[in-house]
Amino acid sequence: MAEQPCLGPPASPAPPNPHAHPRDKWSKKMDFLLSVVGFAVDLGNVWRFPYICYQNGGGAFLIPYTLMAVFGGVPLFYMELALGQFHRTGAIPIWKRICPIFKGIGFAICIIGLYVSFYYNTIIAWALYYFYSSFSGTLPWASCDNPWNTPDCTNYFGKSNVTWTNFSRSPAEEFYTRKVLEIQKSGGLSDIGGIRWQLLLCLFLIFTIVYFSLWKGVKTSGKVVWVTATLPYIVLLILLIRGATLPGAWRGVLFYLRPDWGKLLSTAVWVDAAAQIFFSLGPGFGVLLALASYNHFHNNCYRDALVTSAVNCLTSFLSGFVIFTVLGYMAEMRDVEVEDVARDKGPSLLFITYPEAIANMVGSTFFAIIFFLMMITLGLDSTVGEGQHSRVP
Fold first, then answer.
1. Does residue 16 fall inside a structural domain?
2. 344 in a domain, yes or no?
3. Does residue 162 sit within a domain?
4. Residue 22 lies in a domain
5. Rounded to the nearest 5°, which phi and psi values hold at 188?
6. Residue 77 sits in which domain range?
7. How far is CA 300 from CA 82, 84, 164, 292, 307, in A?
8. In which region does residue 346 sit, left (phi positive, over 0), alpha (psi from -120 to 50) or beta (all else)?
9. What would the 3-class secondary structure string for 267-283 be?
10. What's phi and psi for 345, nearest 5 deg?
11. What is the model's pLDDT at position 157?
12. Packed helices 267-281 and 74-87: angle between N→C axes, nearest 10 degrees
């Protein structure tokens, strides 16, 4: 018989029979909570929230951000956990079970997850390359004395006798663009250049780690998250303590949280707050459906939603202090305003601005290693979560 679309309110379905299709279960409740936190807390918490916060009113931005979380992000977060736990199935079949005409949504979610993994794993591969490059007495992006540097390379950090022009490039920028990406060998989209074999190997290793993390379902991924979800908090705490002791750190904190109440009258600020909370919590990707489907039927997913979403939002707020204490230090050393070093966001913040600051700290090798290790674990948590819904029956 052909499937019929939903033409009226469906009857309340009976709870699924747990004996009809035996499914894996989380070994411990903490495995599930760490998996959800690991998926929600990603690189966006470290690079996007601090930038969006200071750009949209500093401390005043926390008001629309909190309202959007309470009335938008957290309810959708809870809804996905509840749907996955009730139906105990993944993103593909769950929509067919809810309403057959919506079954294409599940396939679309998996395709989106595939697209996201392409670019997300690439960023993690860059972090892996930086991680490997950090194991040296002197960080390779700390000076202009390398084969890939150009005459425009200017190591001006903390030096008053160096002239900075519109053509000047920092050692960290040239390492990222000319050593890591080798964009000088590309003529544009029509001539993208050859394969960067080192990055290809890093990408292969990342996909291999993701594969074996998902190999036996929650039995393996539930153990992996004990490392990948907790290590970033240890590293963030270390970086926060180090950042707070740097000269000029207070300038960055003031710039980060200085309230601009006039910004609240702009609709763009409220749109950015909504975009950030949805970007951060990640409802709609099917991952929360998949993770919750391994719970026991009577698990308190309401409490889980409140706890994990609160942890996610607080992590974003904490990351802002980690980033802006260092940006304040850079502004102090360069003798410029904080906004002059806080313009970059996205990959350039993670691969140029922050590494440049680390290279000029005491113990730079140690801080570079733990920083890029944190980036790898943050990224792996999210990309492993993206892979969960594709294997749930």
1. no
2. yes
3. no
4. no
5. 120, -170
6. 29-154+168-186+194-388
7. 9, 13, 58, 11, 11
8. left
9. HHHHHHHHHHHHHHHCC
10. -140, 170
11. 65
12. 30
Q: How many structural domains compose the chain? A: 1
Average per-residue pLDDT for the chain: 83
Q: Which two tokens stand for residue 350?
A: 């993670």
Rounded Cα distance between 270 and 278, Å, is 12
- Any idea which residue has 């000319």 for tokens? 178
Using only C-alpha atoms, the chain has a radius of gyration, in whole angstroms, of 23
Residue 255 has pLDDT above 60, yes or no: yes
Mean per-residue pLDDT for 198-224? 83
- Band (131; pLDDT cuts 50, 70, 90): very high
Q: How far is CA 113 from CA 48, 100, 116, 293, 393, in A?
A: 20, 22, 5, 18, 16
Q: Kindly report the pTM of this predicted structure.
A: 0.83
Coil, strand, or helix at residue 188? strand
